[in-house]
Design goal:
With 232 residues, this protein is an all-alpha fold. Helix content is 67%, strand content 0%.
């Protein structure tokens, strides 16, 4: 069997670190545990990353696809102050959330049901795609004030605000079913998507819900709740 390439080994380290940081947080992560999960010794791990801080940085280099073609110089260097937070913010900023932003740019969609479905589908798919990184961010944010501010205070809050604005505008135009509070409705939508696209994978009974059935059902449920029945 051919020996894994340096790139393959670095990917294995990044994926092992993503799982461990996402499960036990930054302080709870031990480099020895990451090394064991990646199938190498702790000494070998440090030929790929210079420190635990570099290992955390590597999680986001890999998660945002920043060494998909070429790998960084090894070992990955310890980042300077604020560099990992900046990397996370830049990576999240490059995530393309096109459907809701297109919707917020128009006041008269030709088909609000199709518009809403596209928004909900895009959100589900993005949460599902980035769930390993989101798990790391949310688990480690409680230990890192800068990360907590960047995620909960900026990125996540901005996502809620966009969806709230969309619901308010389409409801005011009589296109969506009125809810007592648009911000709460936006939170219900997001948490429903997050549970099925992300958190259910961490549950002991996650295999009760096949991926395709979960996706189609939750999207249909949300759209049916918000789109009024056609007038007869």
């Amino acid at each position: 069997m051919p020996r894994p390439s340096p790139r393959d080994r670095l990917v294995a380290v990044a994926e092992a670190a993503t799982e461990v940081f996402g499960r036990v947080g930054y302080r709870g992560t031990k480099t020895a545990d990451v090394a064991a999960k990646a199938g190498m010794s702790t000494g070998s791990l440090f030929t790929y990353v210079a420190s635990k801080e570099a290992l955390f940085h590597l999680v986001f280099l890999h998660g945002f696809g920043l060494f998909s073609e070429t790998i960084p110089e090894l070992p990955v260097a310890t980042p300077g102050p604020g560099q990992t937070i900046a990397l996370i913010q830049q990576g999240l900023g490059r995530v393309r959330v096109t459907r809701i932003r297109a919707a917020l740019g128009t006041d008269a969609p030709p088909d609000v049901a199709a518009e809403l479905r596209e928004i909900v589908e895009e959100r589900y798919d993005l949460i599902e795609r980035y769930r390993p990184l989101l798990a790391v961010i949310e688990r480690c944010a409680v230990e890192m004030p800068d990360l907590e501010a960047a995620w909960f205070g900026t990125t996540r809050a901005g996502s809620f605000a966009e969806l709230t604005s969309y619901l308010e505008r389409r409801t005011a135009a009589g296109l969506l079913r009125p809810m007592p509070d648009a911000a709460v409705a936006a939170r219900v939508v997001t948490e429903s998507l997050s549970w099925f696209a992300w958190h259910r994978h961490d549950g002991r009974d996650s295999n009760l819900y096949p991926d395709d059935a979960a996706r189609r059902t939750v999207i249909e449920f949300i759209c049916a709740a918000l789109v009024p029945e056609p007038r007869r």
